[in-house]
Amino acid sequence: MASCATKGYRVFSRETAPTVPCPCGQSTRIVSRTDGLACNLHVTSIKDSTKHYHRQCTEVYYILEGRGKMELNEDVIVVEPGTVVYIEPHTRHRLFSTEGVQTMIIGIPAWDPNDEFFD
């Protein structure tokens, strides 16, 4: 969790963050709802995520490594390092890649497992 907490800011480290399985793949949860903050920041390794949506959370995906495709409602786009995808609530999405993709995901408000819905 937080490696340092002081008035006005908090510092987190990827090295001490838990990595857990999720419907997308493996997610390192650097900043999470349990930290009591307004957002989350996860680094997630994805080969073939389960199509899902959120009713409350807006997500921003920043592709760090790998290439793949992302399904967004009825559209499919190509993603590669440097691609940013802004996903509004109620947008069904999934990312898939034969080689695997590593992405940073920021969620606002912070991701809540009760706000993840599957068709």
Descriptive account of the structure:
This protein is mostly beta strands. 0% of the residues lie in helices and 60% in strands. The chain has strands at 2-6, 9-12, 19-22, 25-31, 40-48, 52-53, 58-65, 68-72, 75-79, 84-87, 93-108, 117-118. Strands 3, 4, 5, 7, 8, 9, 10 and 11 form an eight-stranded antiparallel β-sheet that branches.
Any idea what the radius of gyration is? 14 Å
The geometry reads as globular
| Average pLDDT for all residues | 94
Biggest sheet overview? 8 strands, antiparallel
Instruction: Tell me how many strands there are.
Output: 12
| N-to-C SSE string, H for helix and E for strand | EEEEEEEEEEEE
Total of DSSP H or I helical runs spanning 4+ residues: 0
Report the sheet-strand fraction: over 45%
Distance linking N and C termini = 32 Å
Structural class: mainly beta
Low-confidence region ranges: none
Give the helix level as a range of percent.
under 10%
